[in-house]
Amino acid sequence: MSNLKKAYVAGGCFWGMEDLFRVRPGIKDTEVIYIGGDNEQPTYRNHPGHAEGIELTYDPQETSYALILDYFFRVHDPTTVNRQGNDRGSSYRSTIFYQDEEEKRIAEEMIDVVNKSERWNGPVVTTLEPFTVAWPAEEAHQDYLVKNPGGYTCHFERFGPFV
Fold it and tell me: What does UniProt list as catalytic (predicted)?
């Protein structure tokens, strides 16, 4: 019997985030999604207010929500509003979509840890939003960098662990 959990984050273009998370210890599956927006059944051409996010399915016996967020803050710039690399707009915002008060508390604690580390040149602007629904992105976007090696990404590991 499986005891897998899900986590939802957005930190810029979903391709790069997915590619890095897919190989992390404890991550069992990844899916690129549209999340936190204004319409149902969003598409790449029509996703007002939605962030390009990722759904992470993980085994809590092998990793934790805190470790997932630790890595999240290491692979994108959480100090830029609605921007990662060359990508600009609210689709590329840095957001943690928490599912309950415990996840919200852990996210707030991680933001505090990251800010106190002073590794970034400014304060974290990552927003916390309650999870409502996630919409899978089109098949062409799923596992994009596996299908298209050398495709565009602005995500990479910038630091070692915060915790």
Answer: 13
